[in-house]
Amino acid sequence: MIVGSRDPEKAKAAATKIQNIVGKDSRVSGLVNTEAASRTDVVVVTIPFTALIDTIKSIKPSLRPGQIVVNVTVPLETAVGGSATRTVEVWDGSAGELAARLLPKEVRLVSAFNNVSAEMLNDLTKNVDCDVLICGGDADAKKVVMDLAKAIPGARGIDAGPIENSRTVERLTALLVSLNIRHGVNSAGLRITGVQPKN
Ligand SMILES: NC(=O)c1ccc[n+]([C@@H]2O[C@H](COP(=O)([O-])OP(=O)(O)OC[C@H]3O[C@@H](n4cnc5c(N)ncnc54)[C@H](OP(=O)(O)O)[C@@H]3O)[C@@H](O)[C@H]2O)c1
Questions:
Q1: Boundaries of every domain in the chain
Q2: What is the model's pTM?
Q3: How far is the CA of 64 from the centre of ligand 1 (A)?
Q4: Topology at the third CATH level for domain 41-183
Q5: In angstroms, what is the span from residue 46 Cα to ligand 1's centroid?
């Protein structure tokens, strides 16, 4: 795994931190975003919404045909100084669709992990109690991301249809933040019932 950052030292520090947690079985390194993006098959973009356009444009020349880009970014109002319980309107419909428009068609854009809380992911003592809704137009890319979701204890990857459905999925993050605040927790997640993932 490669951790990307705007700052190579920050990337290395984050990689060392993760390496110490996962142990020697996995190799974790840290690089600036452009280099990190060029060296992996799956690029996960998880940044504040206001940085999405510039970041996608900056990594675009590093990407190659067939690569998968996973957009986790949600257009929460916090990005423009507002509340995390609301989203801002995106002309394209969602952050996922905005990222898809900015990328070449040969790069496979998938939207996923938008509803999974970082606090939940950070607590390795507990299973992640949240489904991962995966939106996008490339079935094979979605299968790859589904396998990534499955590797997280407790999480399930669910094919949530085309990238346009990311409009609904991203808004649910604002609802989850609102539930966290209302109930004084940081563990609100989503479970889809009556659907068995196909992988
Ligand atoms: N946190 C959650 O629980 C959660 C859950 C679901 C979805 N999301 C979504 O995931 C995204 C990331 O959330 P987060 O909480 O991880 O955000 P964050 O901690 O504020 O930012 C993540 C990273 O983005 C980079 N970054 C910050 N400002 C930037 C800028 N102006 N330009 C380029 N890169 C910048 C920083 O990395 P470097 O300084 O190393 O470059 C930072 O460590 C957001 O869109 C959020 O809505 C978050």
A1: 41-183
A2: 0.96
A3: 24
A4: Rossmann fold (3.40.50)
A5: 5
